[in-house]
Amino acid sequence: MPEGNRYNIDRLLVIAAIVVVITGCYVVVRPFFVGIVWSIILAYSTWGGYKRLNTTLVRNRTAASLMMSLTTIFVLLVPFSFVIGGIAQDSADLITEIRSVLDQGLPDPPGWLKNIPFLGSWANEYWLSIAHDGQALIREGKGFLPEIRSALLNVGEFVSVGVGQLSIGIFLAFFIYRDGDRIYEYLHSVGSKLLGDRAQKLLSLVGETITGVVYGVVGTALAQGLIAGVGFMIAGVPAAALLGLVTFFISFIPMAPPLVWLPVVAWLYWNEGLGVAAFMFVWGMFAISGIDNVIKPWLISRGAQLPFVVVFLGIAGGVLGFGFIGVFIGPILLAVGLNLLRAWVLRG
């Protein structure tokens, strides 16, 4: 066989072997992809705290990494685990509350309802038609109970899968904390060979973007969801954990949390009286929505603020692509890609 043909065959065999190895690695890693991305996000966004812990208090990489992982479990994993348990109980309470309303009937609509432009008159007449017709109310409402129950169970399963992926991420983050310096040096070496002098700038850009999204967008939503859930529990609102989770999701939209807590205030005023409703209004105004005005600007100042469309597409696409955990991962990946594109365009 000619030497040139043998060289080409050897080259093809090497390429085929590389493809097989890469494919095999992808098959092995694919179930843990979300957890790996989570671990990178967690470790990088809290790297400053790990370094201070390691250099000033513990002075031991393994011990500092373990303490950071345990802290992450306490801050992130435990609250979401409580949410899962709360959703199960809240689902039963919510169904019971709906059945009670259907059995007792609705009171007359509030006077302001008919004054709402366009739809107020129709809504007022529809409310009156079912409020004084028990059979109509039962027909309207009880048909939705199985769907509501199924949707709540799906939400619980959705969050449970996300918590499982988060657990994997926290476990892997331990090793990133412990060996982070060596991992960074390796990435910088690989990046330098592929990109030359631009590698350091691009790595810094990716890091700044991750920090900005985690603190400015995800951190704010998480804080608002937790504070809302605590307030709902104090006020004795049914489905408090579920409503806290809804607040977390809706907090990604600027100034949107009142869409959750204002109806809760109305429900409390209607069922529990002015005192509890006033407490919930103050809690919602200053504790939940106050984060938008006080804490959020400070958090966002730690990184670049993102356009609303990037956050929206990141959340929607992230949830479709990665499930519950995509709420965190989607905006971060999209923001990293956007900033890398900006850097390339400005350079070009």
Can you offer a commentary on this structure?
By secondary structure, the protein is mostly helical. Helices cover 84% and strands 0% of the residues. The chain is built from 15 helices and no strands. Helix 4 (61-104) crosses helix 9, helix 8 (198-235) packs antiparallel against helix 9 and helix 8 packs antiparallel against helix 15. The protein is elongated.
Give the proportion of residues in helices.
Answer: over 70%
In angstroms, what separates the terminal alpha carbons?
48 Å
Q: Please identify the structural class as seen in this structure.
A: mainly alpha
The radius of gyration over CA amounts to 26 Å
Shape descriptor: elongated
User: On the 0-100 scale, what is the average pLDDT?
Assistant: 75
Q: State which percent range the strand residues make up.
A: under 5%
Order of helices and strands: HHHHHHHHHHHHHHH
Query: Oligomeric status of the shown chains?
Result: single chain
The count of strands amounts to 0
Enumerate how many helices there are, as a single number.
Answer: 15
Largest sheet: none
State the low-pLDDT regions, or none.
Answer: none
Provide a short characterization of the protein structure.
Helices cover 84% and strands 0% of the residues.
Topology of helices and strands:
Elements: H1 3-29, H2 33-45, H3 47-58, H4 61-104, H5 120-131, H6 134-142, H7 145-195, H8 198-235, H9 240-250, H10 258-271, H11 274-288, H12 290-293, H13 295-300, H14 308-322, H15 326-347
